[in-house]
């Protein structure tokens, strides 16, 4: 039995057609959509190891392998790319500065986070969808998706401002291709925009010469450096709160894809948590940065309306190949930061509005003071990247926002409903 059925004739798409997770187009087109995913994940997946001191090629390798593992465990039903999580940068830095954690201890903590997330996935599968509906109703998942999307807005704006001309060219091409074109040019709008912005940056002399020199010096083949983890308690208190962020991101990915593709994927949430948790544990075991569902890739799917896991697989295989080919990896790293920012403007905006769509379709009442105050406060904390220290422990905005949406909201919702019931009696 084939892993994917061919959508239509595999070459043409009706404007409003949605390519499902179990479908694919012709392989040349699928490779094109895979390249969009590869470009969408490359910026953060290469940035995080530079900020945390992990080998970049190793993170790239384990990101690709982790995504393939995720697709295998979810049986090709949940499209996703698992890239390096930016949310781990601050807590890992705090673990080094205040806890004296070494690289091995950080990797051990990442492994523990992955295993705990996997345990939650097993619980969801054992207890059924009702547990998910109770813990994460649409008002919660919509808030998570909106927060994750908007939390990337500062990165998009700062990247755009570094090189505004190629960034603007990228943005204009993506928007015009999405709004005015039809067929494949609309679906591949992000790839077309990035290529156009990249070429314009080269013509304007805004491609970093040092990176071009690095392409010339880089060998065609090289082995990624593997690093062994150590189970040491020095890093655990700093990294443990990230369990909540990874859970929120993985569930948000499933809910966003479900809302955009018109499919009920609640039954796959347990598998997604198991797959995402094992992928993160694998990254920690080999020396890679922590992995989670990469928000720009979800935005790419929303813009293209192509949710084929075949495209995610192509991106994952591409990441593995790049990890063993320093020259190609160096070539992609020449993509100007402004071009990346121009593309991010669209994809993170689309993702954020998917959260609003989840709220709208669920009929969330924003005249309700609990919805207004708790969700509004949590979103400001997450989007504004509120970073506070509790002793030596530093918690970032995504942690505070996730706490507010996933933990505090259900408690206050229950209290408010109980008080209202007593008053009526």
TrEMBL record:
Main subcellular location: membrane
Subcellular localization(s) per the UniProt record: Membrane
Origin superkingdom: Bacteria
GO terms of molecular function: xanthine transmembrane transporter activity
Transmembrane segments: 54-73, 80-99, 105-127, 139-157, 163-181, 188-207, 231-251, 272-292, 304-325, 337-358, 395-412
Pfam families per record: Xan_ur_permease (PF00860)
Cleavable signal peptide: none
Membrane topology classification: Multi-pass membrane protein
GO cellular component, one term: plasma membrane
Coiled-coil portions: none
Keywords: Membrane, Transmembrane, Transmembrane helix, Transport
Homology family: Belongs to the nucleobase:cation symporter-2 (NCS2) (TC 2.A.40) family.
Protein's recorded name: Uracil-xanthine permease
Organism encoding this protein: Saccharopolyspora gloriosae
